Amino acid sequence: MKTRIALLREMGLPRPYTQSRPLKIVEAELDEPGPGEMLVKLAAAGLCHSDLSTINADRPRTMPMAIGHEASGIVEKLGPGAARFAPGDHVVMVFVPSCGHCVPCAEGRPALCEPGAAANGAGTLLSGDRRIESGGETVNHHLGVSAFSDRVVVSQNSCVKIDKDIPLDRAALLGCAVLTGVGAVLNSGELRPGQDVAIIGLGGVGLAGLLGAVAGGARRIVAVDLAKDKRDFALELGATHAIDPTEDGAVETVKEWTDGGVDLAVELAGAVPALKFAYTITRRGGTTVTAGLPHPDAELSFAPVSLTAEERVLKGSYVGSCVPVRDIPRYAAMMMDGRLPIEKLMTHTIALEDINEGFERLAAGEAIRQVVVFD
Ligand SMILES: [Zn+2]
Ligand SMILES: [Zn+2]
Which segments constitute the Enoyl reductase (ER) domain (predicted)? Predict the structure, then answer.
């Protein structure tokens, strides 16, 4: 089976990407789906900051790789034993496959699946196999998805079925931005109605988290980002306050707005100063969630006595502590009835050929969520 893929051969090429063109759209050959795998025709794929982190080498991965990890599609063909799906099913892909049998999976924490993490680290499907070849060489899969492709072979454990009345373009965002952002607030942060929340980092994932805080009944929602246009957009989406964390007295200002600090601060910026700010504006007894992905060498220092004396919680959140088969249909239903207006985050629709232009726009901070729509 022939397909086109977005092939990344070399990380860390210089910007602008419109000139260095790190992604090449090339023809590739897909193997038949193996046991528990299926062939999926892509409908839409979102451009996410973690794709950019692979392109710019902040999160190095094994090259060459067919990248992209946030997608929706339609099942075309089942491999042996892919019994949970049928051809024609609409699916959202999840960028951590879950085996269902390891300790985290058994404990109801499939986002931490151990074979899933190992496969993602190796650039294979959950089976340990690679199913893409291009120009005579084997190509690595990106997080079991490789979304910027016309067709992909994926593990059925990387997919969740959705209703056919859900528009597939915005459904793609359920797989990363929504699962990660909304989940960080509602699952990891355990937001309760009436609590004060801060969202630190207002990219696609952060703004999805903000929509989650609105839907979850937060009282005051403080939007934090260095960029004024992002803060303004957050105010349109339901934030009650917005602040530049580098402005003089920013911590005191947030504490004033929220009578001593927020109950829940969720950091989605992936930078240590952002996490420090999030921790500092959290009230006594409050929770700070970090769902950003800072550079592996980054370190955080703070006075741990506050954890004890103020009963503070500092908590990590991966893929929004999700249970995909539970959360994706739930968020999809909230999207369809208008309580999670995800479509507001979709700033651009682009063709696969224009993907380098898309990543340059993302790197320049000129887009929230851009979606590649396939024919
Ligand atoms: Zn992502
Ligand atoms: Zn598992």
Answer: 18-373
